Amino acid sequence: MEDDAPAHRVRISKAVQEELGLAPYRLDWPASSPDFNPIENIWLLLKSRVQTDIYRPTTLPEMAVAIQTE
Hints:
Number of strands: 0
C-alpha cells in the first residue's frame, strides 16, 4: 500500500519494486484518509467534547480527568 508520498514516487523506489517483482502487487492508497482509520474519528469526537466543556482543563491531570469523564 502506498499513500502517494514523495518517497514512494521516486524513480529508484519504483525501480526496486520492479526489480523485486512487487510492482504488479502495488496497492494505491488514499493519502490521510480518516475513513480507513476509525480511531481518528473517535479522537476528533473526544477533542470536540472536551473543548466544549464549561471548565476546560489547563493541566495534564485535569486533562486526564476530562478525557476519562467524556
